[in-house]
What does this fold into?
Amino acid sequence: MSSKQSDTILIIEPNELLEFPYIYLEQLGTVRRLSTIGEALKEVVWNTPTMVFLSASIEPKKVLVLLDTLKDASHYSLIPLIIVVDLTKEISSVLGTSWGGKIAVVDSHIPKKDLIATITRVV
It folds into this structure.
């Protein structure tokens, strides 16, 4: 992912207090943080993101709807997807998908250098 201003990173995270790993993303482009799948669906339709960070705390059925919408919004290849496990939550879920090799799972304590390496791998 380049450092162009046109890069849009969409974060879907219901925990408004969770700062990491999202705090590291501001230098990579425009960050749009939303708390619900409903908001994210509208955003994806009007402004296709360059990359998506998705909370593992969101209900799996809602995640499936978002993944279908992201797939439809992807023009040349699937939009890179990073699933974030919030370690303060008791229950998280990660759906089984290969997402064309453009997927990763990280936790909320990932060091910055590891997050950047993960982003580089999925892009």
Q: What stands out?
A: The longest helix spans residues 60-73. The chain has one domain: 8-122.
